Amino acid sequence: MSALENAASGGDFLSAGARHWVRFALRRTGQLLVSLWVLITAAFAMIHLIPGDPVRSSLGLTASQELVETTRQNLGLNDPLPLQYWHFLQGLVTGDLGMSITSRLPVAEIVATRFAATAQLALSAFALSVVVAVPIGVAVAVRTRQGRGRVLDLGFAGTSVVLGSIPDFLIGVILVWIFSVSLHLLPVGGRTGLSSYILPVLSLAVGPAAILSRIVRVEMLSVLEADYVRTARAKRLSATRIHLGHALPNAVTASLTLGGLMLSGMVAATVLVETVFAWPGLGSTIVQAILVKDYPLVQGVVLVYGCGVLLVNTLVDVAMTILDPRSAVIR
Amino acid sequence: MDSLKRVLRTPLGVGALSMLGLVFLLAIFAPLLWGEAASETDTAHLLAPPSAEHWVGTDSLGRDLWLRTLVATRLTVLLALGATALGVLLGILLGSAPALLGRRIGRFVTAAVNILVAFPGLLLCLFFAVIFGVGEVGAVFAIGLAGAPTFARLCHTLVAGVQERDFVTASRIAGRSRAYVLFKHILPNIAEPLVVQATIGAGSCLLTFSGLSFLGLGVQSPAFDWGRLMNEGLNRIYLNPLAALAPGLLVITAGLAFNLTGEAIARAFNVETSGSWVTATAAARTAARKVPAAFSAANTVPREVLRVTDLQVGFPGSNPVRGVSFDLRPGEALGIVGESGAGKSLTGLAIAQLIEPPGQVDGEITFLGMPLRPDGGEDQRKLLGTSMALIFQDPMSSFNPARRIGEQLAEISRVHQGMNRRAAWERAVDRLRAVRISDPQRRAGQHPFEFSGGMRQRAMIGMGLMAAPKLLIADEPTTSLDVTVQQQVLDLIDSVREEEQVALILISHDLTLVAERCERILVMYAGRVVEDIPASALAVAQHPYTRLLLAAVPTLATDLDSPLAVIPGSQPDPSTQFSGCAFAPRCPLADDICRTREPLLRNAIPPIDDTRKKPGLGITLKTSRMRLELNLGGKPGSPVHTGQVACWHKGEPLPAPTLIDDDLPDETLAGVGR
Ligand code: SF4
Description:
The complex is a heterodimer.
Chain A: H1 3-9, H2 18-49, H3 54-59, H4 65-75, H5 81-94, H6 107-143, H7 150-165, H8 168-182, H9 195-224, H10 227-234, H11 239-276, H12 282-291, H13 295-323, H14 326-330
Chain B: H1 2-8, H2 11-38, H3 65-95, H4 97-101, H5 103-117, H6 121-132, H7 136-163, H8 166-173, H9 178-189, H10 191-215, H11 226-234, H12 242-269, H13 282-288, E1 306-315, E2 318-328, E3 333-337, H14 344-351, E4 360-367, E5 370-371, H15 378-387, E6 388-391, H16 395-398, H17 405-416, H18 421-434, H19 440-444, H20 453-464, E7 471-475, H21 483-500, E8 503-508, H22 511-517, E9 520-525, E10 528-534, H23 544-552, E11 566-567, H24 592-596, E12 602-603, H25 623-630, E13 644-645, E14 670-671
Parallel strand pairs in B: 3-8, 3-9, 6-7, 7-8
Antiparallel strand pairs in B: 1-2, 1-4, 4-5, 9-10, 10-13, 11-14, 12-13
Helix pairs in contact in B: 1-12, 2-3, 2-12, 3-7, 3-10, 3-12, 5-7, 6-7, 7-10, 8-9, 10-11, 10-12, 11-12, 17-18, 17-20, 18-20, 20-21
Bound molecules: iron/sulfur cluster.
């Protein structure tokens, strides 16, 4: 075998699917760019879609006409639309998201200081729900196969439906009531040390974990009936190896799409949970900004949230393609 | 009304609908009954904690919070329904755009919807809330618009599913307008899933609305819904937790009511109840099971690879395999034939110890001297993992789609032979080469989807050869392959068998195929072996079923235009109890004995000794049939049946074949051959 052939075939496992990868990367990048453009344009358009004069409604009826005019001027709202759009894009590239109307601080600065608090919440809640839900889903699937374990099946179904139906901010309120008000174990709100993370993370994680474990169970059940699992059994692998090595990756691939939705949903859910716990993150920022009509700030936070979601979705797709190379070809 | 009844038939449906009914009753009557009391201020009890008078306490104006919570039901539900209606309407419009406006615009709409769906609903909600402004009307629009993309996507999928159906195509060809087709044919056909989704959607709208109001972005004072009440209650959670929890509890209840109702409707219309085997009593199957015949194995080195004695496979309520026994010598090829449902595949799975509960296997299976048990330990696992190889019907699905072929082969050597990753990989590549896969280095690194069906089946055989197999069980290994590829795969199995001295059990519905490749054939019918015959003796098969199968095989002389010969009727269902011969209903020779007593496997009628010209039988047979038996032996050198037959009238000639009946519905025909 020549060296060239060797390089093309041996050793390098990736070479087989390399072409699929390139095609996948191109298509996915295209998709991402389009979505990003839609997001940016929507954020830009938001201010112009508000009926009436956004600056007037932001500063209130008592503000002088002069102040309104200068603010309009400062925000560039008097320029023709295409020029405004151009400036907006320019600003984005240079990291300039405009000025907050109320605090008169650069939006980029506010967002930067608040971003970490929100990202920490969302990511730890996601990690927690996956770590809890996947083993539960797998275990319940294995125990309830082919009509076994009826009691477990019913109990699991009931619990997960109820837990999955409670909105996260309500879980937050209930948790506060139990652990802060009644038991005095954990702080009621704020971001003050590790113990203050427990309740917000829990309230974000419970619902998604319940839903995810149901999905994992269903996927696992169908995968366990697949021919290749029979093949794995015919290979006399141990139960652990069959369930974790052969069935789980396929079940998880199918659950991953949902996992992605879940994570981006969690990013959004921080808005509510942060309000419950007075958490100094992007969520409470955007709610305040909407209430006081600080539109540039709203715009900035919407952009950051949107980018976060797009990033999560892209990562999920990439992960899925690594786990299941077929998806790169099929989609 | 009919559909309502269907939903109400399940406990889930009853529970969900009564919950939902309660919510609606509250929404209608609470403001009428307590509307005034709820806005009555009680200056003596400002911000009071719960008491007998005020169950949940009072707010800053001394108004009773429990009554306010009840009264708030109407606004909460109304707003949620409004937002749902908006979302559903928009969703249907967007989702059916491709059907309504044609491909080009449709594709654009679909792409836009796909982009929007990627953003979480709550985020879209906030976006629209900014545009429409804070307040209940703004929130209805925001939530409705935010929910539209998800609904549009669902609707689009559903529409696409119906669009290619015959009646839709027919209507379109008939020149109906797109709108007509959409409203007349498509939407009514997807109504049920849409209703389900709308119901569940109403639940999430309610939750989202409560969330917005809770944030202060929804309902504004002096109006109040549950979210608003929670918003006001949260600040006082230390003083009066119930002020926030009571409306919260109602939010949960109402949300759950909508969700569960959706679920119940879904179940009532889509999901069939799973098989009755779950509830079937175990008693039925234990009664039908026999005590396995004692197997007195002299503890010597076995000459046979496999010994199966009185193998039975039972599931609750049925016994698809009812006593199968045979031995298999090293390198011997045994075919098992029969129609589907004869129990041949289950026999294979049972030998391989792959029947799972609730299925149960009885009888003795001794493989390479080791008695196999369903809960066999580590030794058994190792033995089976290295010495018994299996090939299944569908190579497309028998490999794990997520892992490389090479890895899947290598796993055997790593797990059972303790090889390291590298050595196992080398072995896998070598085995792929052994099953004639070209460029095995590269192929080993590929995933199953990059292999063709024939290649996968060869790789599957290669997987069986990773260790040192002594027995290969191939269950319809070529049924799903192209005819040309079939021969290649079978040739490969043959050569493997020769080179490695592997015994083979070839399971197939195809008598010719089995006869070509095997030395011995077990003909199975309704869970029993009815004839055990050397392949060379098929011409003198003695069981009526075998002979009908043979008659049904098309030969070169068969007119290709004439319909395939079939045996009318079908096998008895394995769950039915019957006495006598299972084949009797379809057997041209059946008489009263056949119908009352089940024939057991006995030696075939000895061949006629040609040199002495004397029949070696006769006494046991009825004289009227004797003459016919005499013709059976044939000329010297003709095939000799040294096997066993289970038939009261074995070897007796059949009347002119009862064949060819086009009018029988397909499932009653037992087609044989290709
Ligand atoms: S026992 Fe009777 S019914 Fe059964 S196959 Fe023989 S002849 Fe036919």
